[in-house]
Amino acid sequence: MTMRLVAGVLLLGLAACGSPDVTVAETEDGKVTRSADGTYKASNKDGATMEASTSADSATAAAAAKALPDFAPLYPGGKVLSSMTLDDGKGSTGNVVTIETADDFQKVLAFYDGKLAGSGMDSKMRVDQPGMAIRGVGTENDMGTMISINDAGDMRTISITHGAKKID
After folding, report:
1. Residue range 115-152, pLDDT digits in tens
2. What DSSP string runs through 74-118?
3. CA nearest 29: which of 6, 46, 49?
């Protein structure tokens, strides 16, 4: 039953390609829509929302990039591969942006290490492996950012995950 539902949602999503906003799935808890630019938007009855896109030209990619903190920006000249923004409807937000660049791994790593060093954020994680690095920074309870850099042959893939929690 679950596979049939998933297959049906995917078929509806594919049928919606190039169309204005189309509802892909709707339940008593919320709905999922797909817009003409390939952005999926989900919302629930509690006000939480999620937008995801695999298009660098989408409004979601622009919004996710704009929401990144100054110390974890899009890599200069990098191409956005995918993006996602989240909002729990109560003031906590997050976003994920995946970027690709042909620049040297060490150059990319030095760029982000330099940005993080001047951020004033506490270092929470540091992983260095051949062809892979992860940096995590955050504050005690309200904000955190993780940057993952992977060497994938001719290209480097950078994933930036950022979240902020509303503090009352």
Report:
1. 999 888 888 899 999 999 999 998 876 678 999 999 98
2. PPTTPEEEEEEEEE-SSS-EEEEEEEEE-S-HHHHHHHHHHHHHT
3. 46
In a domain, 20, yes or no: no
Strand order across the 30-34 sheet: 22-27, 30-34, 40-44, 49-53, 79-87, 93-101, 155-164, 143-152, 132-138, 122-129
CA distance 158 to 87: 22
Work out the widest C-alpha separation in the chain, in whole angstroms.
52
CATH number of the domain bearing residue 75 = 3.30.310
What is the rounded distance in angstroms from the CA atom of residue 121 to the CA atom of residue 65?
20
Task: Answer whether residue 129 is part of any domain.
Answer: yes
pTM here?
0.73
Average pLDDT of span 81-96: 83
What gap in Å lies between CA 128 and CA 131, rounded to an integer?
8
CA–CA gap between residue 124 and residue 111 (Å, rounded):
18
In a domain? residue 144: yes
How many domains does the chain divide into? 1
> Cβ(156)–Cβ(150) under 8 Å?
yes
Q: Is residue 17 part of a domain?
A: no
